[in-house]
Design a protein that fits this description.
This protein is α/β, with parallel strands linked by helices. It has seven helices and seven strands. It holds the Pfam family Redoxin.
Length: about 160
């Protein structure tokens, strides 16, 4: 009986945790700081708070990522079709000079931040990052409405943004 009870508790805990991750960020992710283009460190929760009241697309990318670069025209198409949406780019580059030159080279319009410890670091793990580019969509309240989309999911991203208008 004790084993069954422990199994039920473990399942319930796992189920609640995985569902919560899909509609909100963990406290670890929210408290992690990211490098801003002005050299300051900004908590992820403050980045999200800044976009409150706007539908937001978060793109996790890196200047060295071939799939990220190939997806840039689609991102620009999304921006043209959804000018009311805020775009936040979070880089997984290893150095700030590569990151900043990538922003300039690809003419990325939006807010820009860089993770301090790349894909396998604290922030990457906290958002379950296993592939880039990765897209996350937040509604106007900051709730996650699309948690895991990649460069082949632009139809889904577009449809999600259309629903949130």
């Amino acid at each position: 009986m004790k084993k069954l009870f422990a199994l039920v508790i473990a399942f319930a805990t796992f189920s609640c945790t995985s569902n919560a991750q899909k509609t909100s960020f963990s406290n670890v992710a929210l408290s992690e700081t990211l490098l801003a283009t002005d050299g300051s460190q900004v908590a992820f929760k403050d980045i999200i708070k800044k976009q409150k009241g706007k539908t937001t697309v978060i793109e996790v990318w890196a200047s060295w990522c071939g799939d990220c670069v190939k997806a840039m025209p689609k991102v620009k198409e999304l921006q043209a079709n959804h000018p009311e949406v805020a775009y936040t780019f979070i880089s997984m580059d290893k150095t700030s000079d590569k990151w900043l030159s990538g922003i300039e080279k690809h003419e990325l319009k939006g807010d820009h931040y860089m993770a301090n410890d790349q894909m396998k670091g604290v922030f990457g793990q906290a958002i379950d990052l296993n592939w880039i580019p990765r897209y996350i969509i937040l509604d106007k309240t900051g709730k996650i409405v699309l948690y895991r989309a990649i460069e082949t999911d632009f139809e889904l991203i577009d449809a999600t943004l259309n629903k949130l208008k």
